[in-house]
Specification:
Radius of gyration: 22 Å
Distance between the termini: 20 Å
Largest sheet: 6 strands, mixed
Helix content: 25-40%
Number of domains: 4
Length: 354
Amino acid sequence: MQLSRVLVYQTGETVYSFAYANDKLVYVLQDDLNEPATESVFNARVSRVNHKSCSAFVEYLPGLSGWINLKAGKTGVQNGSNIICQLAWHGDTHKQAKLRPGVQLAGKYVVWLEDDKFALQSKKLSEAKKEELISRTELNHGRWILRSLVNDESDLSLVINEIDMIKEQIQVIKASNNLGLISAGKRNYLKLLRSFRLESGFEFITNSETIYDEIRYWQDLWQIDVISFDPKLNLTSNIDEYSQLLNQSIITLANGATLALASLHGIHVIDVNSVSLDMNAFTLNNAVIEQIYQQICLRNLLGIILIDFVKNMNQEEQGRITTKLNKLFAGDVTSTKILGFSHAGLCEIIRNKF
């Protein structure tokens, strides 16, 4: 998917981002400017360790606490010690914020993972180009993953510039000894620009001069064609329409099928119904997959998602459904795992919270 336009509207301390592909609304994301952005790096104080579950509660900012899984992180962490970690999810009224140990830094072209061993990974870049990149950037530590956007036809100077920026960020993180925020993460409007290809003539419009200046910083590196500051931009009607969408629990599709949506404490269920349609199960389910994907993205459903497709598909047909879902979510703004069909016939998806 390629984005054609992103409209970013700030009202008070809330920022709404409306992303369009071929002039069709595909994502609506929100940012609370009173909260640190996800992916922010902290030197947090451990308040309580649960050695049995290899987890801990940490205070990452004064008065702000969260939960961290230590299984893939440091061992020997004790109450009162400090730990470098990254905010993965803000939490909600039912659950505390979630953090992860260590650091991952993501750009549009490359992702850096903290690792004792050096590696440069790419599915689309030839070995010769990889050697050229290593030589020109003097990479020698951590695991660097080139995103699918990068191939042999890419302008490597853009990749090199982003690598240099990430290396500077790594140095800042490693040099800091202060408690609290070490490195700010990226707001959701930046994640949209980072995650997707942008159409030729792509336009970014905002009513916030601060956000306008922030996007201009990334314009050349991320190849953003048009950035506009419009103080008269008013998207209150768009917000109202979006609120109405969120309140709809039944979606009627053009082919006559319906999707029934329900959510409870981070678990979302989508039920496919077709009382009057003369189609076999696979034909109907295959026809509604893209609409299901669109509803998940538009509503920003996160966590566990269960899809109750029309029953009576065989194993091969179920495999074709999961393959199509994998292709659709491959370019998602967050990491999404298609777990497949359970014994009860439900298609299980985990869409990472961010």
